Here is the input.
Amino acid sequence: MRILLLLLTMLQDGAIEFPEPPAPSPVVVDDTQPQPSVDTFSTDQLYLIQSDIALVILASPAGVLQVTPAKQGAVIFSRFAGGKGLEEKTVTRANGYVVRGLAAGTAELLILPAGSADLTDLRRRILNVTAAETTPPDGRPQPPADDVAAAFRAYEKSWRAAQGELADRLESGEITTEKAAADWFSVAGQEARKQAFLPLLRAESVVFGGEGWSPEKHARYVRRYADGQRGKSAQAN
Here is the structure.
């Protein structure tokens, strides 16, 4: 009985931390039927859950979400649900769980304390995954083929911006030699690559890096890069 009371106490709202979505407009809710919370994020964002207790998190249906545990103190550099642009977040609670959208769609997270079989402990969270916004020539938002394509797209954007800045510096007389131009763009190009591909490398380190690394996990994860398929990311378990 004491263990059950402890679990119920730890399952108060402060025990599990979800991303905070933008405040919605007031709506009338039927309090007689409790509804699961609904959050929305895109395929180029991560949904970070933190908890003081260990959790078992199941995603249904399969193929929309990937859930990966993260240790306390882990630093993740990416775009996050509820945030703006690239940012660095640290797992501050005892347990972290990184949820990644593999494809656009709606899925539900079923969350239980580890070791609990009591359905009254069950927490539910519905997640709407949207495609990352891009603007192709036809004007319709289209997602990149996968996270590698998204990284290359970000690199292209930064590379073009760096070329524009180089042209400005040449025309203003700030850069006056070929070597100075080459040196400046070498640094700018390196920074563009870092900004574009570091989120990809950070995601890899969360999924299969560190103590949990194995050749098989690494191969399963990067195989999808060669296949160029978004929805067939292998779980690195």
